[in-house]
Design brief:
This protein has helices at residues 2-5, 15-37, 52-81, 87-92, 95-115, 119-136, 145-165, 167-171, 179-212, 215-218, 225-230, 242-272, 292-299, 307-314. It has 315 residues and is mainly alpha-helical. The chain folds into two domains: 1-43, no CATH class; 51-277, Growth Hormone, Chain: A.
């Protein structure tokens, strides 16, 4: 709430912004403390994050969707606001990223299977992310679309490496009996991060637009830049030089998002240095198995007798 409101609905120094920030982080800390010390059936068993390798995997799992989803969302905004692309055209421009991401996912999985290691793949993934976010900062109002497509393909390579390999540092240090709990928390981190991706990017973009959009454009909207962002489809119909000024304002504002994402990718890379090179599990938990005899017994279901048959047997 604080990140969404700050600088838009309420000033950053206002009570409405500071209270959620001040209460939110200690509240999260108290939740984790209670789970570790007092909960009889903890939602988040502390042992899942009690070792540095699993903790590193969870942190990387959180940072990755912020960049991946944020890039997908705000690159589309760039295509439409700066390049003048239609929504359909902006979606088509995302195909190279999608294809490269899919191929990278498959190849990364194969590499982990063959090498029995995961650290190199994750380090390479973060390197691709940092390079790609740096490349996005070169996009401007007159940059060829092919330039953006090539950079987004680098994000696809990095995303495939990270999404495919992040399970392993989470699971490798834990007993296989904890796989269900570990993967549930893994899914929570990944889903929770997707909310932050839009929140962080949207907060940065809106605050930058407030400072950069020309007054001749924002004066048309009583709600200021918040509504101006939703008015992207009308940019192409503006008269010059106002149209070029608005496009440049959007280009400069989105550029700040890429700079923020460079920092987040750097935090992801830093967190990856804490994981150890542990062997991958090769066994399964026998408690979840079903013996052949039980399996056959469970699969054998006696069909109910028809009423005439039951009467004949009774007689």
């Amino acid at each position: 709430m604080a990140l969404t409101w700050g600088g838009l609905m309420h000033p950053w120094e206002s009570t409405a912004t500071l209270v959620p920030l001040i209460l939110g982080f200690p509240g999260l800390g108290f939740f984790l403390f209670y789970e570790a010390k007092f909960a009889s059936y903890p939602i988040v068993p502390f042992k899942l994050i009690a070792n540095r390798t699993s903790l590193s995997g969870y942190l990387q799992t959180f940072f990755t969707p912020i960049i991946n989803i944020g890039m997908t969302y705000y690159l589309v905004a760039y295509y439409q606001s700066v390049q003048g692309a239609s929504p359909i055209r902006a979606g088509v421009n995302g195909l190279p990223f999608t294809v490269v991401l899919g191929v990278s996912l498959i190849l990364t999985g194969v590499s982990v299977k063959v090498t029995k290691s995961y650290r190199v793949q994750l380090w390479l993934g973060w390197a691709f992310y940092i390079i790609a976010m740096g490349g996005f900062t070169t996009l401007g109002s007159h940059t060829p679309v092919a330039h953006a497509l090539g950079i987004s393909s680098l994000v696809g390579v990095g995303g495939g490496l990270l999404y495919s390999a992040q399970y392993f540092p989470v699971l490798a240090p834990l007993p296989i009996s904890e796989n269900a709990h570990a993967l549930a928390l893994f899914g929570f981190f990944r889903t929770f991060a997707s909310v932050w991706a839009i929140t962080i990017g949207g907060t940065v973009l809106q605050n930058q637009l407030v400072k950069r959009l020309p007054e001749a454009f924002t004066s048309q909207f009583p709600q200021g830049a918040a509504l101006a962002y939703a008015s992207i489809p009308i940019i192409s119909s503006l008269e010059e030089p106002l149209r070029s000024e608005v496009r440049q304002a959007f280009a400069d504002s989105i550029d700040v998002i890429w700079q923020v994402f460079i920092g987040i990718a750097g935090m992801g890379l830093l967190s990856s240095f804490f994981m150890e090179a542990l062997p991958l599990h090769t066994q399964v938990d026998d408690r979840w198995g079903i013996t052949e005899g039980k399996d056959s017994e469970m699969m054998t279901v006696e069909a109910p007798l028809e009423k005439p048959q039951r009467m004949a047997m009774q007689s």
